Every structure is written in C-alpha cells, then in structure tokens.
Amino acid sequence: MFDICCEAFSSSCLLLPSFEQRLASEKIPLGKFPLQTGNLPMNRCLLFSDKQEILDEAKRMGYGTFGVGTSLKADYCADSLEDESVYRPLFTSWSDKTEGCTLFIFDMGNVVIKNIHMLKKVARKWHLNEKEFIEDYQSYNSPMMDGFISTSDYWGHVKHKFGITVEGEPFAQEFTPVFNEEMVALLKRLSKEGKRVVCGSNTFAPHWEIIERMGALALFDKAYASHEMGVSKPARQFFEYILEKEGCKASKAYFIDDYEENIESASKLGIKCLLYVDGYAKSASEKLNEVFGS
Questions:
Q1: What is the pLDDT of residues 175-204, one digit of tens each?
Q2: Where is the secretion signal located (predicted)?
Q3: Are residues 189 and 264 in the same domain?
C-alpha cells in the first residue's frame, strides 16, 4: 500500500477533477512527478500516468506505478479514474465507510490487544542469537498459525537446531498482552447497538489461551482462531470461512486489521476495510475516529 501519490499525464489525458477532489477529501497528498519525498521511501509513493516511458522511469526509481489507459504496463492499470474502487485499496489512509455492514470482523493482535511481540524476549531468555532465531521462526510461523504443527513440535526443532532444552512454553511465558482501550470501547459500543462483532485472528494455542483468560474473547459474539480453522490470513479462504459460518455476504462485512496484506486480501473479496496502523497522512486512531466516531 501507499502513503502519497503523484501524477504525470499528457495534455490529452487531464487528471479528473473528481479524482483529485476525492484524494484531497481523504487527505492523500498528490503532487507532480518526481516527488520530493523526504524520509519517506520511494516504494510508499504511487505514480499515476498515461505515459509508458514515465511509468518505466518511476518503476526504476522504486515508485509504485498505476497506468491509466489501454495497453500500458504498470503495477496497477485501469482504463480511467472514474471508479474509485480501482485505486481506493492502494492507500494506507483510505478507510471504507460502514454503511450497509451487519458483520464487523476484528483482528486481535495490535488491534484489540497490544504489547504482543515476544520473539526478542524469548531469544534473550534462552541466550539465542536473535537474528538467527527470528529468521528460523519465520519458516514455522505459518504452519503453527494454520495448526499444522504444534508449538511443542517447534520447540523440539529448536532443541535440535540450537542445542538447547526448552522448559515450559516460552511463547506463553513471554506473551504479556494488554487491552487497546479505544478498540475495546468501540467493540462494546457496537455490541450495545446490536451489531454482530466477531474476531478473526492469526494465532496459536498458547497465545489463544492467554487471550481467553484475560477476557478478550468475551468481547465478541464469536471468535475465529486460525489454528482451529486450519487456515490463516491473508488467504482468501480465511475470510470465506468466516463469512460462510456467519451467513454473511462479503458486501455486508467490515474488517479491521493492522497488516496491509490482510486488508488487501479482504478488500479483493468485496469486504469493506480499515487498515488500523499509523500512516503518513493519518494515525490509526484518526482513521478509526473518522469511520466510527468517538
């Protein structure tokens, strides 16, 4: 996803005023190519153009590219900019409205609860090389989240690879989440208003048990955990599973998450979304307040 954008159109392809106004209403900066981005990485910038040579140049510079017109090669393409749905999901600060939604799906980590990171703490406690341990963990993260292997199986692997004997369950011992009060308040308000609120989380058993004990699952009408479902985000099957169980069409669902790839996957299915993370133009709290109010 992108934080700012720029344009380079030929004189025969004027930037649609409605497009410019829509970006301004969402506080998405729009400038001329090339941009002076300051400390913002080029890959957070999206160029809109109808000229292939400009698109190619921007691509070489590290920009994301959006070709407007036919027969153009770019990261994203559309015949025109009249339909905002073709570019709306590409911006971190753009959040969908909730009109027509009857089901609200919330991620858990970094959304409903905070202080969830524990890998560095595990590495320090067991005197493991932090970089090697985290890199190794990444190969096992998805299988554990999908429920294909247990965390005890993973610690057996750690014992074999790193030559240590792990006692207890480090993933639980070093996992000390706390509630995100603004999201808890929103959940309670939606429930009071009669909305259906569910959780859709990538997790595994040791964390899920702690989350349940702290009372986080009690905030929801239903909680869906990846390791119990057998599939994790951003796979489309994760969202399809929840929609089927809830008997809800994608167009009637709203999803809040802090990972761009999860938002992109849900958005492609027609689910309305909010990316709950600080962006260049808006903070996570600002976006939440704009959509749901205080």
A1: 999 999 999 999 999 999 999 999 999 999
A2: none
A3: yes
